[in-house]
Amino acid sequence: MTKIVIVLIIAAVCAVNCQDLDWWEGGNFYQIYPRSYMDSNGDGIGDLQGIKSKLAYVKGLGMDGVWLSPIYKSPQADFGYDISDYRDINIEYGTLDDFNELIAECERLQLKLILDFVPNHTSDEHEWFLKSERNVSGYEDYYIWRDGKIDPYTNLLVPPTNWLSFFRYSAWRWSNIRKQFYLHQFHYKQPDLNYRSAKLVQEMKDVLSYWMHKGVAGFRIDIIVCLFETMYSDGSFPDEPIDNPNCDYNDPCYLNHIYTQDQNETYDMAYQWRELLDNFKIANGGDTRIMMTESYSSVEKAQRFYGDGDRKGSYVPFNFEIIKNLNQNSTAKDYKTVVDSWLDRMPKKTGIEANWVIGNHDQHRAASRLGVTRGDLLNILVQTMPGIAITYQGEELVMTNVHLSWEDTVDPQACNTHDPVNYESSSRDPARTPFPWDSTKNGGFSTADVTWLPAGTNYQTVNVKLQEEATNSHLKIFRRLTTIRKQPVFRQGTYTGILLNNENVFAYKREYGDQVAVVLLNFGTSQQSVNVASAFSGIPAQLKIYTSSLSSGMTNGAEVSSTNVNIGKDIGVVLLSSTVNAEY
Fold first, then answer.
1. Residue limits of CATH 3.20.20.80 in the chain
2. Which of 236, 375, 547, 564 could make a disulfide contact with 480, Cβ separation 3.0–4.6 Å?
């Protein structure tokens, strides 16, 4: 059942400004999926010039940085995550000259550009793999090659272990050229790199340096948890234990991936990359280059990427607790639990920031998973919690999934189910459809008759132009949130969270100097009357509505009593004290 979000933001005049913050601290980051953002040449595929033409929109959202999903040269077996050349741009997206123009436009707008770095695997069309497959000297161990074994029951050659690909079926593929199996934890055209090769490790460090020299401000590290596998002293690998015998034995959920994920060496590699980024700044000057890491592991394992106490690691180990644990029926207590699970375990030291993520290109859209009427609520949560906020393109519009037929589905994760009835639950395509700029053909994304994924019909009612022209909209609420977020109380303020009104309301107080803010999220099934003044100390008698959920009926600038804040079902509101210098 959908619920209500109310955000009360109370702030007094701040005697001091946010001081000594690096550009990324408390930052707002926006993820762009390049194939679907803007097509500049009418071929039905988004490109760098299209992104460049829309950067002013991104800046206008209040973003500090923009992260691009892979744009490198690729045969597109997994839509850019199968890289054939780490130092070139995929022809569908443009050229290195286009990239240089994009960097220049980011600098003009004071936006930081972050690239996806895909270190676990390449394309099988990469020069390294072609040489490794042929045992060319120096490249023999760039990938993970092993002999097969003879099945005692069939007397046939089978893969060396029972490991399964994320995309189903065996994670091993036979090469008729090398006469061995190679490991691929994803598509068979994505062979895993071998990080026990010192030469390969240096190659990948050189790739990072190459892009930093071009002006990149950091990297999002794709599926970092898979870099290493448990290996015995004789070079063999162990089978993984069965985790869920009721799962299809070809599906990765069948096994417990204790030997192919979260190995100790993986964290060491992350710390090496952090050292490289820090040393690059020392040697070349300029701003901090950051690292963001993708891990769907436990909180404890994900947070190991922050560092080990002596060595530093990821600036942003993605916090996927909301994605992993919550749904449309989640309660205020559920939300507080996942928030606390991250905040309570974080290292308590300078330079460590929390981060908040509700969606990305690998998940069904946040509004579809967590509730459409909670769209503003979710954005309020992300934008008012301590730390870094990450927004996937379209979340500012409260976009929902686009239904795609089996015939239109292209995601290998879905196609490998070979199930034209139930494929959609496995498909990442519904969240990757063209971005809706207006109500014209293909949502203004492309003039092509056919786009790489259909635009669907949602764009006719949910698009940027309509929300720009509306008196109020999800987009306008989002911009107000990113504006108030720049106040020191949100950039640097303390956090205290509680449950109120029989655990129907998740409330938290942010405080910095004489600035105070209170956020109320009502996940109950009915209206709640909240006494904010008794719940928290230092609350003024009167609060002003700064912004509220689209269907709230509230008026910006109206005053409410802090002893009786009525939160209607499925409504969110941001309240400020009268001493805050805010435009209503």
1. 28-120+201-229+260-469
2. 547
Residue 67 tokens read as 């992260």
Contact 161, 149 (CB under 8 A): no
User: Is domain 28-120+201-229+260-469 classified as CATH 3.20.20.80?
Assistant: yes
Q: Taking the alpha carbons of 385, 388, 389, 390 in that order, is the dihedral positive or negative? A: negative
| pLDDT reported for residue 290 | 98
Report the pLDDT value the prediction gives residue 503, as an integer from 0 to 100: 96
CB 167 within 8 A of CB 412: yes
Radius of gyration in angstroms for the set of CA atoms belonging to the chain, rounded to a whole number: 24
The CB-side HSE value for 116 (13 A sphere, CA atoms) comes to 24
Instruction: Determine the residue type at 222.
Output: D
Catalytic residues: 222, 294
Distance from C-alpha of 252 to C-alpha of 270, rounded to nearest angstrom: 25
Percent of the chain clearing pLDDT 70 (strictly above): 96
Query: Residues of CATH 3.90.400.10 domain(s) within the chain?
Result: 121-192+230-259
What is the four-CA torsion angle of 75, 77, 81, 84, rounded to 10 degrees? -30
Nearest to 222 by CA among 291, 289, 290, 170: 291
pLDDT digits (tens, 9 = 90+) for 380-411: 999 999 999 999 999 999 999 999 999 999 99
Phi, psi at 262, each rounded to 5°: 60, 35
Residue with tokens 């996940």: 523
Please write the tens of the pLDDT for every residue from 204-245: 999 999 999 999 999 999 999 999 999 999 999 999 999 999
Report how far residue 383's alpha carbon sits from residue 369's, in angstroms, rounded to the nearest whole number.
19
AA identity, residue 44: G
Residue pair 370/379 in contact by the 8 Å Cβ criterion? no
Q: For the chain, what is the mean pLDDT?
A: 93
pTM exceeding 0.85: yes
Instruction: List, in sequence order, the alpha helices (H) in 237-316.
Output: 264-284, 299-303
> Among 145, 167, 101, which residue's Cα sits nearest to residue 414?
167
pLDDT band at residue 18 using 50, 70 and 90 as cut-offs = low
In this structure, which long-range contacts are made by residues 152-158, counting pairs with CB atoms below 8 Å and at least 24 apart in sequence? none
Asked if 488 and 16 touch (Cβ cutoff 8 Å), the reply is yes
What is the residue whose two structure tokens read 């707008």? 109
Q: What is the mean pLDDT of residues 236-258?
A: 95
Cβ atoms < 10 Å from Cβ of 551: 14
Measure the N-to-C terminal CA separation of the chain; round to a whole number of Å: 32
For domain 121-192+230-259, the CATH class is: alpha beta
Q: Which residue has the tokens 């941001």?
A: 574
Structure tokens at 142: 């760039």
Q: Model confidence at 8, in pLDDT bands (50, 70, 90)? A: very low
- As a whole number of angstroms, the distance between CA 289 and CA 112 comes to 10
Order across the sheet with 112-117: list the strands. 316-317, 290-293, 218-221, 112-117, 65-68, 28-32, 388-392, 355-357
CB atoms within 10 A of CB 295: 25
**Helix, strand, or coil (residue 111):** coil
pLDDT digits (tens, 9 = 90+) for 41-100: 999 999 999 999 999 999 999 999 999 999 999 999 999 999 999 999 999 999 999 999
